[in-house]
Amino acid sequence: MVSSKIPRRLLLIVSGAALISLAGCGGGAGGATLPPTPLDRILFDTFFGTDSEIFAINGNGTAPLSLTDNDFQDTEPAYNVAGSRVVFVSNRDGNSEIYAMNSDGTNPKRLTNNTFEDDHPVFAPSGAVVFRSTRDGFNSDIFRMNADGSGQTRLTTHPGFDFDPSVAPDGRILFASDRQGSSYQIFRMNADGSAQTPLTNTPANQFSPAASPDGQRIVFTSDRDGQQEIYVMDANGSGQTRLTNTPDGEYDPSFTPDGQRIVFASQKDGNLDLFIISVDGTNTTQLTKTPAFERHPTAR
Predict the structure, then answer these.
(1) pTM here?
(2) For labelling, which of 16, 128, 145, 206 has a CA lying 20 to 30 Å from the CA of 245?
(3) What is the pLDDT of residues 228-257, one digit of tens each?
């Protein structure tokens, strides 16, 4: 375990420094590159061997910072609105539970404690945490709790599989579910779980919805054209548009704070690395390039 972590850390740091030149040397779909955005921070987890740890980098791929360093699976990180706290999933105490820590990795605190799986945590603008859990009859539902772990409340009770929650700026919750049939669609509901409404309706699968900072658009993934690709749509589900078109899978999209870019994970190089793309589908730029698997990026 220790021997695998050392080269992973070194490779990430070295490639992070090298990505200053990578981000400025072209190769994007539109032939131009994105300007550096060092004030944006991107959280992600990197999987190497049997270990997964949480890192942060600048919006141009530089200045990698390790937030966790242990022999367990730390994954699915997300910032709060202020960027001061991070929620994440860890199995450090046995099974997958939700934790919170400062944005520099200090003061980790366990928020959930049960024998089932709790994962996919995200902060709401109010400071509450929305997450998925299998605790009620092994079903997969969306829950909400206070930032300190108190007040854990089940929001969905459908027998379908509900997961991949995210929270829009107005507090409404997006999630994926197979409750309408064999495929997964994007749904939206109010912060209290009411008014659960489908936004997509196709024979294909839709996953990983995330709202833009102004709440006007939603980015998500879909396999409707064969491979899992990045799509955007208006907040009401109209105007669904494909942004990526590669033979490789794209996953876990998230808007940057200015709403002009989307960061995501892709298998373009054989393993999962992080990329960033303009909202019109041009200017794809690679942010990480390591032998590890970089996943679940979120930006602030």
Answers:
(1) 0.88
(2) 16
(3) 999 999 999 999 999 999 888 999 999 999
Q: Which residue has the tokens 């990329």?
A: 275
116 or 9, which is more confident: 116
How far apart CA 198 and CA 230 sit, in angstroms, is: 19
Residue 217 tokens read as 């658009």
DSSP string, 206-257: EEEEEE-TTSSEEEEEE-TTSS-EEEEEETTS-S-EE----SS-EEEEEE-T
Rounded Cα gap, residues 126 and 172, in angstroms: 11
Indicate if the pLDDT at residue 145 is higher than 50.
yes
CA distance 81 to 99: 17
Q: What is the arrangement of strands in the sheet containing 206-211, beginning at the earlier edge strand?
A: 206-211, 217-222, 229-234, 241-242
Tokens of 1: 């375990």
Main-chain dihedrals φ then ψ at residue 8, nearest 5 degrees: -60, -45
Is residue 297 within 8 A of residue 252, CB to CB? The reply is yes
Report how far residue 146's alpha carbon sits from residue 129's, in angstroms, rounded to the nearest whole number.
Answer: 6
Residue-wise pLDDT tens digits, 156-201: 999 999 999 999 999 999 999 999 988 999 999 999 999 999 999 9
Residue 270 burial (C-beta neighbours within 10 Å; 0-12, 13-18, 19+):
exposed
Record the tokens describing residue 43, joined without a space: 């959280």
Query: Token pair 């590159």 is at which residue?
Result: 33
Q: For 263-292, how does the pLDDT look when each residue is reduced to its tens digit (9 = 90+)?
A: 999 998 788 999 999 999 999 999 999 889
Please give the Cα distance from 230 to 153 (Å, whole number). Answer: 31
C-alpha to C-alpha distance for 86 and 78, rounded to whole angstroms? 5
